[in-house]
Amino acid sequence: MPNHTPKHIISAATIILNEKNDILLIKGPKRGWEFPGGQVEEGESLIHAAIRETKEETGLDVEITQFCGIFQNIRSSICNTLYLAKIVGGEMTTTPESLEIGFFSIEKALEMVTYTNFRERIEYCLDPTKQPFIVPF
């Protein structure tokens, strides 16, 4: 039997609400409107990755307030971990990874986010009755 080492990708993403209950979205060059997040680096904790990716893509410093769950892409061996977070500092800024950035009402945000199951991910993160979740797809 060949010695096969599985290659998995783990990502960490944040759902950030402001005091008006609007959600922070970034407009990425490939997937359009989405929430901040990205790949966990080797030797990095999930929470640190979520905070780092959010800072890199938005300029904002966040604190993780809650683990929501995982969306698992079985075919591609990707686990997407999702967290609720709140802003604790920094300044909102665009980057090559986020061409536009802003807060939108949840209703409007759910219309704007069209990439694969990203809308569903937001809905799961905003519904405490679904948490914690593991959603295979």
How would you describe this structure to a colleague?
The protein is an alpha/beta fold. It has a single domain (9-128), classed as Nucleoside Triphosphate Pyrophosphohydrolase (Alpha-Beta Complex). It has helices at residues 46-58, 106-112, 118-125; strands at 9-16, 23-28, 32-34, 37-39, 60-73, 78-90, 100-104, 133-136. The protein has a 5-stranded mixed beta sheet, sandwiched between helices. A 3-stranded antiparallel beta sheet has the order 3-2-7. The chain is globular, with a radius of gyration of 15 Å. The model has no long low-confidence stretch (mean pLDDT 95).
Strand and helix map with partners:
Elements: E1 9-16, E2 23-28, E3 32-34, E4 37-39, H1 46-58, E5 60-73, E6 78-90, E7 100-104, H2 106-112, H3 118-125, E8 133-136
Parallel strand pairs: 1-6, 5-8
Antiparallel strand pairs: 1-4, 2-3, 2-7, 5-6
Which radius of gyration do the C-alpha atoms yield? 15 Å
Structural class by secondary-structure content:
alpha/beta
- The tally of strands reads 8
Q: Span from first to last CA?
A: 28 Å
Taken from the alpha-carbon principal axes, the silhouette is globular
**How many domains in all?**
1
Classify the helix fraction into a percent range: 10-25%
Our estimate of the beta-strand percent is: 35-45%
Spatial sequence of strands, sheet with the most strands = 4-1-6-5-8
Q: Provide a count of the helices.
A: 3
Q: Describe the largest sheet.
A: 5 strands, mixed
Helix/strand order, N-terminal first: EEEEHEEEHHE
Label the CATH architecture. Alpha-Beta Complex
CATH topology: the name is: Nucleoside Triphosphate Pyrophosphohydrolase
Mean pLDDT: 95
Q: What is the CATH superfamily? A: Nucleoside Triphosphate Pyrophosphohydrolase
CATH C-level class is Alpha Beta
Q: Flag low-confidence runs.
A: none
